[in-house]
Amino acid sequence: MGYRVAVVGATGAVGREMMTILEEVNFPVTDIYAVASRKSVGIEISFGTKTLKCLDLETFDFTKVDIVLMSAGGDVSKAWSEKIGKLGPIVIDNSSAWRMDPDVPLIIPEVNPDAVWHAKKKNIIANPNCSTIQMLTVLKPLHDAAQIKRIVVSTYQSVAGAGKAGMDELWDQTKAIYGMGDKTPKKFTKQIAFNVIPHIDVFMEDGSTKEEWKMVVETHKIMDPTIEVTATCVRVPVFVGHSESINVEFESPLDEREAREILREAPGVAVVDKREPGGYITPIEVVGEFDTYVSRIRNDPTVPYGLNLWCASDNLRKGAALNAVQIAQLLDERGVIVSVDA
Ligand code: 2RA
């Protein structure tokens, strides 16, 4: 018993993680296809002990699959997801193309699993932005306990969020600084090696960036439209793993000890919070992990009911591929799709 699955964008960093995670979580797969643009046709992708050859998106027959995990960028998703959905499979899309469409649920399984019941409207489900996923995975149980009023978040986002080109640029510039090669920025607007850049995605009219805007509107759609959110998103010279410094103001009292106990029990969250040198999490330590790690949980005495915390998560996993696979698991668990041999 299982599902027929296609991964579109299978050669990208997230597409490859999708393949790995399907295997790691033992997702019930009967048939698996790696699909990509024409230039990648024939490239070999591993799926467990098997090797798949990439098939052409233009000619792939989507009627033979139940689930499409799509990580091929916004333009490809805009051109293909709706067409594929009309053929029958459910598309779980990692781009920003459909996130704010009212007929497309935007899901973090630990936060708003019931939104999966709206999956059939367009047969598209959107995966939220990486920085929103880790923030809300941590904040949802605290919101349930004391109702969040306002969030002030600053992100420290790894270059993996900008794809392979971002990772290559950090590597090349780092080598160039020691005398080998060219350190001219290509993917990023300024040098990223030994630097930080307070700019991710395009600028909006109000001076914020689209990455910052996403954290606001996605929080409203996924968790609660009444929460005030203000964000500053920053690219840092870390290969994989996004971190966030979050200040939260609540409607009712929530002490740091209570918050720590709630977070210890929360799904998808791990607490590392010893008040001593090294007793906190850093992004390099979360690479390959499923959980979002929380540290530095402490009261904010400047407001009646406030907390500060730090979190870090593998942005290619919980921030992208893992969350998408967890949505596929949710479709299965809730019976929104039925496995082929059932
Ligand atoms: C980034 N948010 O880190 C993007 C990836 N989804 O640039």
TrEMBL record:
Family matches, as SUPFAM superfamilies: Glyceraldehyde-3-phosphate dehydrogenase-like, C-terminal domain, NAD(P)-binding Rossmann-fold domains
What InterPro entries has UniProt attached to this entry? Asp_semialdehyde_DH, Asp_semialdehyde_DH_beta, NAD(P)-bd_dom_sf, Semialdehyde_DH_NAD-bd, Semialdhyde_DH_dimer_dom
Q: Name one GO molecular function term.
A: aspartate-semialdehyde dehydrogenase activity
Q: Does the keyword Cytoplasm apply?
A: no
- The residues that hold substrate are 157, 235
Query: Could you tell me what reaction this enzyme catalyses?
Result: L-aspartate 4-semialdehyde + phosphate + NADP(+) = 4-phospho-L-aspartate + NADPH + H(+)
The Gene Ontology biological process terms listed for this entry are:
'de novo' L-methionine biosynthetic process; diaminopimelate biosynthetic process; isoleucine biosynthetic process; lysine biosynthetic process via diaminopimelate; threonine biosynthetic process
Query: Where does this protein hold phosphate?
Result: 99
Q: What EC number(s) does its UniProt record assign?
A: 1.2.1.11
Q: In which pathway does it act?
A: Amino-acid biosynthesis; L-methionine biosynthesis via de novo pathway; L-homoserine from L-aspartate: step 2/3; Amino-acid biosynthesis; L-lysine biosynthesis via DAP pathway; (S)-tetrahydrodipicolinate from L-aspartate: step 2/4; Amino-acid biosynthesis; L-threonine biosynthesis; L-threonine from L-aspartate: step 2/5
Per UniProt, NADP(+) binds at: 11-14, 39-40, 315
> Which stretches make up the Semialdehyde dehydrogenase NAD-binding domain?
4-119
Q: Which UniProt keywords apply?
A: Amino-acid biosynthesis, Diaminopimelate biosynthesis, Lysine biosynthesis, Methionine biosynthesis, NADP, Oxidoreductase, Threonine biosynthesis
Question: Which residues does UniProt mark as catalytic?
Answer: 130, 242
Q: Which family does it belong to?
A: Belongs to the aspartate-semialdehyde dehydrogenase family.
NCBIfam families annotated for this entry?
A: asd_B (TIGR01296), PRK14874.1 (NF011456)
Oligomer status and interactors: Homodimer.
Biological function: Catalyzes the NADPH-dependent formation of L-aspartate-semialdehyde (L-ASA) by the reductive dephosphorylation of L-aspartyl-4-phosphate.
Q: What is this protein called?
A: Aspartate-semialdehyde dehydrogenase
Q: What is the species listed in this Swiss-Prot or TrEMBL entry?
A: Asticcacaulis benevestitus DSM 16100 = ATCC BAA-896
Cite the source lineage.
Bacteria, Pseudomonadati, Pseudomonadota, Alphaproteobacteria, Caulobacterales
